[in-house]
Design a protein that fits this description.
single chain, 213 residues, mainly alpha
Length: 213
């Protein structure tokens, strides 16, 4: 919800950059809450990733003005990123207590959906459904594949390799989006975008390579 409202004020490129900060936020919260040791290579990898995403979206941000609307969008997206990182910590705590991952995800999504319903009703919004194959297909994809399956896979990964390393996937989201856009929307890679991709891949190597013994 926070990111949807942020998108009304700032470019999607800035949202991608802010959300990629979760790769660093997970490291900080993991250290603060669980006392996890901060690995310098993971932190450096997160910085490489954020810088890489910023380079890839630099042309989109070139003409953006830092006015009140932009600051509101920035604050909302930062709040959304913090919420995501806190959710990571809660999932990690639940898994450490031995709670079943699919049950906890199911209850979490039920709570989230319930809160959104109450928020929408308080705003006086109406629930509408477009009975077209495109709309229903998109809704089915987002709810099943983009939500249930994706979060199940992500939180399983989080429990196996830790929040710090799993959080780097937030850097890869915009990379995948641009690759898809290359084939679906004829996106043309600039030199800055290529350098950004190289920085993201370098960060990926730092974060996911096996630590020295």
């Amino acid at each position: 919800m926070l990111f949807y409202y942020a998108g009304a004020h700032v470019a999607s490129g800035l949202l991608s950059i802010v959300f990629s900060l979760a790769s660093i936020g997970n490291v900080a919260l993991g250290s603060l809450i669980f006392g996890t040791r901060v690995e310098r290579r993971v932190l450096a990898g997160g910085v490489f990733g954020v810088v890489g995403v910023a380079l890839m979206f630099y042309p989109e941000l070139g003409g953006m003005r830092l006015d009140i609307a932009a600051l509101i969008g920035l604050a909302l997206s930062l709040a959304g990123t913090v919420c995501f990182c806190i959710g990571n910590m809660l999932s990690l705590a639940a898994q450490r207590r031995g709670l079943p991952i699919f049950a906890t995800i199911g209850w979490s999504m039920a709570y989230g959906a319930g809160l959104m319903v109450l928020f929408s009703l308080a705003r006086g919004d109406r629930f509408t459904l477009e009975w077209s194959a495109t709309y229903l297909g998109g809704l089915l994809y987002l709810s099943v594949i983009g939500s249930v399956i994706a979060f199940s896979v992500y939180f399983t990964l989080l429990g196996r390799i830790g929040a710090a390393r799993a959080g780097y996937t937030t850097v890869m989201y915009p990379v995948i989006a641009l690759i898809v856009s290359t084939f679906a929307e004829n996106y043309r890679w600039s030199l800055l975008a290529v350098l950004g991709l190289a920085a993201v891949l370098a960060g990926n190597l730092l974060v996911l390579r096996a630590p020295r013994k």
